[in-house]
Amino acid sequence: MNQTIEKLHQEDQTETWIEAAKLGNVKSFEKLYLYYHRRIYLLAKRMTGSVSVAEDVVQETFIKTWQNLTSFRAESQFFTWLRSIATRIVIDRLRVKNAKVWQQVSDYDEVHASLNSNAGQQRDLEKLIALLPEGARSIFVLHDIEGYKHAEIAKLTGIAIGTSKAQLFRARKLLRDNLNRA
Asked: Which residues have CB under 8 Å from 154's CB, separation 6+?
């Protein structure tokens, strides 16, 4: 109960922290970081499947946030704005890592075998998500976990809406197949 009250109090404080940080108050920005960094980390880890990359994404996200904080106009929630910065950073990193990451995986059997070889991990959904092919994993996280629409995903990633839908279908099928085997 105490934690719920504390969380509500912190949510009320975020607007104050944002305004103070816009004026250069580092302590207020630190409070924003402490309040939101875990959510950004989980988003990045789910999308990339990598702890170290997720940690780098968190740092880069908050650096860009600090640099661009004065452009935040409160037309959306602060976390929505912050999440969009982190998502763009992840997508850029995935593009650099593999220029073809957004294409459909052509060898379904190879991916399926890779997932099946980790039978001990099948009960842990986070681990199953991390095992998905990068493109399918990113689309799954953006759509099913973060709530983006296919049109938004297409715009963010530079892929066709149909490709986004196909990647999501593939991700769900791989997850469903492997959860049923667990």
From this structure: 160, 161, 163, 164
Residue 39 is which amino acid?
A: R
**Separation of first and last alpha carbons in the chain:** 36
List domains and CATH numbers for the chain.
2-96 (1.10.1740.10), 108-181 (1.10.10.10)
DSSP-derived secondary structure letter, 142: I
145 three-state secondary structure: helix
Chain segment 102-157, per-residue pLDDT in tens:
343 334 444 444 545 444 443 467 788 888 888 888 899 899 888 889 998 888 88
> What's the predicted TM-score (pTM) here?
0.63
